[in-house]
User: Which sequence fits this backbone?
């Protein structure tokens, strides 16, 4: 028998660590999805650099959506901070051992790359702004006239996207005190989950066509700009199929990585095995099995396979499920990870 | 350069909580929070039970994960005594250090920054012991330079069996418990 009593009673620490609430899963979800969108956008911008028409590629416009979502994610992160007025301190230091410091500086690079990438299509996508700010057209034309610049932007999108996606996992995985997080698999897992969420998000917004042609007003135009990655037309079946195929691959890899994560945890220390149990059979099991695995990966895999085989029509259902699963993955990992802790060898 | 540490004799500690009250008074610890606390660990099967009472706090680790994860350098190793300290006006309140600490030694101060035991560095600089050590009625707590072989803490560690908390975490804690 081992009985431990303590007089410690610190809020958010006792009885179970709960310093991070909904804000961090939201931030990690948006961060991962934006990372995935940057990778997809970058790969398609390489085709643009080869001289193909910009309107043909959905990803050219995703930087606009990514920029908006990034601000939402950063807003959630700011809400989480307990000492908000001192947030600027992040940019008065670079701490090479701190993943959060690396992430903060990567985000500083992500913003200008997203803005520059967004400028390529902004004047056409948002006619209201394009008519009032001719400089937008000049900037767009200047970028498109320089294939080398488009290529550089494309590589910057891919590299920063991979960096940002992995960072969202490494942020958690470097903490030895939290056995559930303390795995190198978490970085690639969050990257692939972000890619999957990105493909689902682009698929989802490309099916929301608010009007043809794009509304010319301020609000309607802004909305159209965000949800019409293909311009004013719905996606061609070939493009939709491409997204579905990509998502199938991401989901399959995600499932394998989750399996590897658990193999690593169960073959590690008792603390790690106990941490894995939190997801497989503990308080978080219902959300993990029901939303992350079943609704978020297995069902979309099945539905999208049937869609590709033309057995059922394309719908937004798989995309919605993938997004729900992607968020739920972050939510259970952040919650269960905080609940996981090191078990003293002397206490076993 | 000194490397401060603490040695606590669990055979003498009675869990009176004087150290906890002294810390709260000395450091104006906000109500409902604690920088040090008492843990009572009972193990075995009746009637062969053993009990250990410990006064716990930040371990001022030699390999502190709270310092390596801090994005601003607010959590840092102070030159004086190689202790782990927090600069409040550099802390953004991200709480990464709370997650990174395997001992749960940190908390969020109501003003928003991460807070924890400082080894009463302000007292030590004046040549005094930390408040918890100075009030202990059973004299079970000892403070000093672990790198000085003549210090009381070094001599106790050289002569008595001892352990640290969660050594498997690899943090190299500097609060030692005599068995």
Assistant:
């Amino acid at each position: 028998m081992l009985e431990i009593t303590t007089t410690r009673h610190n809020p958010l620490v006792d009885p179970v660590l709960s310093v991070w609430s909904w804000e961090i899963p939201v931030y990690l979800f948006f961060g991962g999805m934006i990372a995935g969108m940057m990778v997809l956008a970058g790969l398609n911008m390489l085709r643009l650099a080869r001289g193909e028409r910009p309107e043909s590629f959905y990803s050219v416009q995703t930087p606009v959506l990514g920029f908006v979502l990034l601000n939402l994610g950063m807003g959630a992160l700011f809400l989480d901070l307990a000492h908000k007025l001192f947030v600027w301190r992040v940019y008065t230091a670079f701490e090479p051992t701190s993943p959060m410091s690396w992430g903060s500086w990567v985000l500083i690079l992500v913003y200008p790359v997203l803005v520059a990438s967004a400028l390529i299509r902004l004047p056409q996508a948002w006619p209201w702004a394009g008519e009032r700010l001719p400089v937008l057209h000049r900037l767009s034309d200047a970028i498109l006239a320089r294939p080398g610049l488009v290529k550089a932007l494309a590589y910057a999108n891919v590299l920063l996207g991979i960096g940002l996606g992995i960072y969202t996992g490494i942020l958690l995985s470097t903490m030895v005190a939290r056995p559930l997080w303390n795995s190198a698999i978490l970085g690639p897992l969050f990257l692939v989950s972000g890619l999957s969420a990105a493909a689902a998000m682009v698929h989802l917004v490309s099916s929301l066509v608010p009007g043809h042609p794009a509304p010319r007003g301020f609000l309607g135009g802004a909305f159209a700009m965000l949800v019409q990655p293909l311009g004013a037309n719905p996606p061609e079946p070939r493009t939709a199929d491409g997204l579905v195929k990509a998502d199938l691959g991401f989901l399959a890899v995600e499932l394998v990585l989750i399996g590897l994560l658990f193999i690593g945890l169960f073959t590690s220390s008792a603390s790690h095995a106990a941490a894995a149990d939190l997801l497989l059979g503990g308080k978080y099991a219902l959300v993990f099995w029901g939303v992350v695995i079943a609704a978020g990966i297995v069902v979309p895999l099945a539905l999208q396979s049937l869609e590709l085989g033309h057995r059922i029509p394309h719908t937004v259902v798989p995309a919605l499920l993938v997004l729900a699963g992607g968020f739920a993955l972050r939510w259970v990992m952040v919650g269960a990870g905080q609940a996981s802790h090191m078990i003293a060898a002397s206490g076993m | 350069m000194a490397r401060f540490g603490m040695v606590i004799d669990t055979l003498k500690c009675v869990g009176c909580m004087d150290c906890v009250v002294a810390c709260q008074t000395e450091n104006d610890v906000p109500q409902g929070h604690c920088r040090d606390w008492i843990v009572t660990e009972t193990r075995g099967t009746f009637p062969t039970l053993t009990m250990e009472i410990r006064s716990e706090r930040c371990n001022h680790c030699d390999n502190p994960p709270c310092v390596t994860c801090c994005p601003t350098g607010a959590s840092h190793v102070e030159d004086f005594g190689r202790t782990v300290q927090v600069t409040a006006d550099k802390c953004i309140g991200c709480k990464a250090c709370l997650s990174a600490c395997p001992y749960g030694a940190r908390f969020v101060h109501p003003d928003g920054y991460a807070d924890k035991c400082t080894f009463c560095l302000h007292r030590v600089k004046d040549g005094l012991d930390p408040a918890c050590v100075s009030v202990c009625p059973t004299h079970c707590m000892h403070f000093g330079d672990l790198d000085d072989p003549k210090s009381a803490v070094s001599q106790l560690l050289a002569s008595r069996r001892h352990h640290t908390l969660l050594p498997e975490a690899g943090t190299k804690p500097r609060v030692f418990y005599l068995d």
